[in-house]
Design goal:
By secondary structure, the protein is of the alpha/beta class. The protein contains 14 helices and 14 strands. Strand 9, helix 6 and strand 10 form a beta-alpha-beta unit. The chain binds glutathione.
Length: 338
């Protein structure tokens, strides 16, 4: 068992070393399409709509990158990945980037040899239970059966939490969020645990959402963000600064409504550098002057993307919380565009 885990990791790292030799920016340009790894389906974050068009908060990162590099937010092939398959898909080169509620951890960075280019959602792990269970704290879950997705940090945090609190549990291992939802609703487990954003997204689809409670404990830090392979710095820069452009646009007041006007030039030099009417940032990135304009137009600035897909006006109803701009007491902080 131990051996196969070690082998698995070595294989992923080996694949990453091979795939990193090629320049992903050039590959994507030559292909005319971005291969973006996403979840198999988490409403609000990544799921196909009734017409089969992928929508969501994570999907928006892929579209922004495609807009910046290929001048077309729709030039994306979305590749659904599970908790287990996502890292092999990236290491092998099947996908150019992964934008799928993936937590930035030491071992994923250092051992699996990936590069997290930023954080698009600061999350933490929570628990959902049926109200009928009469439980009001995660510390009352001793002996519970727990639905849990394999290959996730969720699995590991769960073990830590129960160990710290001297409690036992029985895991019900599951591959996808849809399956977890089914199993949980069918009563195959007492509890569903995952990132709190995933719990909110899942509960929003329940017929009787009010019959389920999300317990108050958040037991971990889950900084979620897009990642690429180690070693391909040019590509890492493109994805990193595309995400930063969405975050900076919100801070600087650039929206999809005013971007055309602002792109012509403003009295704020940073806005001008971001949108390309001043300076040569696009050229430094191997792109043209208006790359960030296109990224922002794809789905709006970070705040617009958040509000449209997962914000308080959507069924998912997430507050900005830690994901507010640093100027509003949150953790979002894009480095300077200069
Ligand atoms: N953030 C954790 C957990 C991520 C995760 O896999 N969450 C589930 C539950 S929301 C998920 O995204 N499932 C998507 C799917 O099954 O398509 C990690 O990186 O390991």
């Amino acid at each position: 068992m131990k051996k196969s885990v070690i082998l698995g990791v070595a294989t992923i790292a080996g694949l990453a070393a091979g795939a990193a030799a090629a320049g992903t920016v050039d590959d994507v340009k030559a292909r005319g399409k971005l291969n973006c790894g996403v979840a198999t389906g988490v409403p609000g974050f990544a799921s196909p709509d009734a017409n089969g068009v992928w929508q969501g908060f994570d999907v928006a990162v892929c579209r922004a990158v495609a807009a910046a590099v290929l001048d077309d937010p729709m030039a994306v092939e979305f590749i659904p990945t599970t908790g287990k398959t996502r890292f092999t898909a990236l290491a092998s080169g099947e996908i150019d980037m992964l934008a799928r509620n993936t937590t930035w951890t030491f071992s994923r960075d250092v051992d699996l040899k990936f590069e997290f280019v930023g954080i698009n959602y600061y999350d933490g792990q929570g628990f959902m239970v049926p109200k009928a269970l009469g439980v009001s704290s995660a510390k009352e879950l001793d002996g519970a059966t727990v639905c849990i997705q394999t290959g996730t940090t969720t699995e590991l945090n769960l073990a830590d939490f129960f160990r710290i609190n001297n409690m036992s549990y029985e895991p019900v291992p599951i591959e996808t969020n849809a399956e977890a939802q089914q199993q949980y609703l069918a009563g195959a487990c007492d509890v569903y645990t995952t990132d709190a954003s995933g719990l909110a997204a899942t509960r929003a689809t329940f017929e009787n959402a009010g019959d389920h409670v999300i317990l108050p404990e958040i037991i971990s830090k889950e900084p979620l963000g897009p990642l690429v392979r180690h070693g391909d710095h040019e590509w890492g820069d493109v994805v990193r600064w595309t995400l930063n452009s969405l975050i900076a646009a919100e801070e600087l007041g650039v929206t999809s409504a005013n971007i055309d006007e602002m792109a012509a030039g403003t009295d704020n030099p940073e806005v001008n550098r971001l949108l390309g009417s001043e300076g040569t940032l696009g050229e430094m990135l191997g792109l043209d002057a208006t790359w960030a304009q296109r990224a922002i137009k794809a789905g709006g600035n970070y705040g617009e993307v958040f509000a449209k897909n997962i914000g308080e006006e959507t069924p998912i109803g997430l507050a900005r919380g830690l994901n507010a701009q640093w100027t509003d007491g949150g953790l979002l902080y894009a480095p300077p565009f200069r």
